Amino acid sequence: MLEKLDSGIAVNRFGLGARPGELGTLVGDGRDWLRAQLKDPPPQLSDSRLRSSSDILVEALALRKEIRQSRQAAALETAAGPQLPALMKVPQLLRPVYIEEATARFRQAVATDRPFVERLTQFWTNHFAVSVDKNLVLGLAGSLEREAIRPHVLGNFGDMLLAVERHPAMLLYLDNHLSVGPNSKAARNVERRHVERKVGINENLAREALELHTLGVGGGYSQTDVTTFAKVITGWSIGGEQGRRPQGEPGKFMFRVELHEPGAKVVLGRRYPDTGYDQGVAVLRDLARNPSTARFIATKLARHFIADDPPSKAIERIAQAFGASGGYLPAVYGALIDSPDAWAEPLAKYKTPSDYIVSSYRGLEIPADGGRAPLAPFDLLGQRPYSPGSPAGWPDRSADWDGASALMKRIEWADAVGQRVGNRRDAAQLAPQLLGETLTSATRTAVARASSGAQAVTLLLAAPEFMRR
Amino acid sequence: MQRRDFLSAGALAASGALLTSRLSFANTSADGKARFVFVILRGALDGLAAVPPYGDRDYASLRRDLALSSENVLPISDVFGLHPSLVFLKESFSARELVVFHAIASPYRDRSHFDGQDVLENGYVRPHAAQSGWLNRALVAMPDRRVSTKEVGVALGQNIPLVMRGPAAVTSWSPSKLAALDEDTLERITDLYAGDPLLAKRLADALAADAIAAAPGVNMESVAKNGGAPGARYTEVVHAAAEFLRRDDGPKVAVFDTTGWDTHANEGSAQGQLAARLAALDAGLRSLKEQLGPVWADTAVLLATEFGRTAAINGTRGTDHGTAAAAFLIGGAVRGGRVIADWPGLSGRTLYQGRDLMPTQDLRSVLKGVLEEHLSVPSRELDTVVFPDSGAAKALRGLVRT
User: Fold this and answer.
1) Contact call for B131 and A403, based on CB within 8 A
2) What pLDDT was estimated at residue B146?
3) Number of cross-chain residue pairs from A and B with Cβ atoms under 8 Å apart
4) DSSP alpha helix (H) spans, A184-276
5) What is the pLDDT of residues B44-70, one digit of tens each?
6) For residue range B150-190, what is the model confidence (pLDDT) as tens digits?
7) A295 lies in a domain?
8) Residues A274 and A366 in one domain
9) Is residue A77, in this structure, part of any structural domain at all?
10) Is residue B141 a contact partner of residue A373, using CB atoms and an 8 Å limit?
11) What is the pLDDT of residue A450?
């Protein structure tokens, strides 16, 4: 019985929902299908319109400067003087970038034949969450995923961690570019000029790196560790014009030594000599290898792939693989796949809105970029891409997504999808192809007896087994 | 300045004249008219900016150029003021419909937003101690009231926040931009969910909420119309809350949340980032009052956050995660015009761990007082089921007109 369910679990829980025919291509064990996806280098988004974070940032910062200068110029004009032409605002510049990024990612999720890797990519993006409701992040969230997550999704956790913490999107999102060591050269210069303004650290990135990216809350760090780690990463900033300070490469990571708090520092009981930029790298390397990190990541993976309250045996197994491999992610995923718990209970996870939309499009072979507003379904169902609203990312439990109003939205949307494609899709024929052995006789019957093709599609998408994975 | 210089609950109870003059009002809780709204301010509201202690001798030096002064605060005592954005709150204070709490905190003492919010909502001492929230457990303990819907509580949003999850029947509602389903399809889906208790329950709850939203006299259309524009969500939510609560046969308890209070950098002062958010919050509360009409007289709205922020500004003109914060109780049913604070001061010695405003009041005392006197939740239940291990946090009574 379990054997028969394996392929359905593989494509729906570990993948992004079956495409028609996909279940049939799984020969033998669903586990083999998953392992095979981990072999080649991870796929990158191929859309040529997508630009590097530094390009986007340089353009946004240039616009910002232009706006500031035009405001200053306007202030000099007399009240009766000529009005300056209105400049585009920064969000207007970045919104099209955001839409292109999110659409490219959506397209990839719907079309990919390595859906396990794509789901893992989304998992890590959510683990290292930024949110586009904060100014410049609107233009950079997509590039964070492309530049720091995707290249490492089948690599080492420590490398991904470093790539993320250095990325302009994360530095800006958690304010680290503004953080100044209280005894740094820059702080002393400010003091010498007797400016009233105080400069100092901002502990936002340091705290979230410990709490959300590595050790997890309760992972053994103190407030002193947070503050000290914040000092360690003072100077982790972004290149570009900053008064008379060195410019570096505009829009790219830059270690600004004049902002860095000098001296050796003790984090989690270990002393790190002052090696400038490398001091932060050394702390991150140790954090990546910390047993609390292994356990925290294992718990999150198990919650995402097994159950809201994952069994401790599975967590142990995954954490063990994380520790033994030094955070080599394919080994970690292997331990997840090999956990019998991951295959014991079908449909243990309630789909997030994003899962629900992507699996519907895959199952019905709807192109992701059709229509004028490809991201509209995400808005309607309450999960706009890259906008979890907090660095903790989207929650990953049923109760966070199964609200009454949320369910009604899904059903209404399923109805709209049915109206749109119902006369061109045979839901009765698709049902077993998408749901495999999890298809219940109640759903099979309801879909078969629908009064129209549109209604059949609606019933298939609204079915309890399609709401879950 | 000395500790206990300010109106504490005890001092106020002693000035009994004010209390008794209100006793002739209808007992809103016993006849089931009382409405309660809980607003979660997610992200850790800076209590020292929202309710600046401009009379505290250490305040200005901690806040430096972000400090508000007697020039720009809206004073509510010779020590405390309201942020200049909080115009409606100031009016409500003057109308004795607002109580301001300061140096208040949940039992949570670390500085993680997510665990802090969990404790704020679960009502336990520790994060992740329960899958249900105190407000839902309080609904279970409420005496039977003659309401025609079984859902006493509604969450404004697609999903239900932890504070409202649990055994009591609650629903969630948010405006829809999609066409409603035809009856036949809906019936078939209802049949399809017969074997799935969770989905069957959720669908029934959604239909119940939609029925209220579609009832004559309810104007949800304008709610939905506002959607889409940035910042419109909050306006939309407030409007929907009012539409549900002002009905006799609708839910009596509503919950919603607002975000964006995590002001680590460039927080601003009388103007700026936080000022704009506070202004929006203030305007939303004003429109809640307007839209509730006469029902406002039976309403108490409690606004709370997971924890406060550092007493001093950080190196980036913002504030980092702290401990004690401010909270607000507002509404026609509130015995307001008071600041309730056991002010610990802001000198280096009195700061919690040398950096945060010291908590001197337990938020659970306020919640218990409101739930007991406004919603008639028995105190026995409050001490055990609703807020386990809260014996030390005695209910703060006299906050609402009973």
Assistant:
1) no
2) 42
3) 163
4) 185-192, 204-208, 223-232
5) 999 999 999 999 999 999 999 899 999
6) 678 999 999 999 999 999 989 999 888 888 889 999 999 99
7) no
8) no
9) no
10) no
11) 96
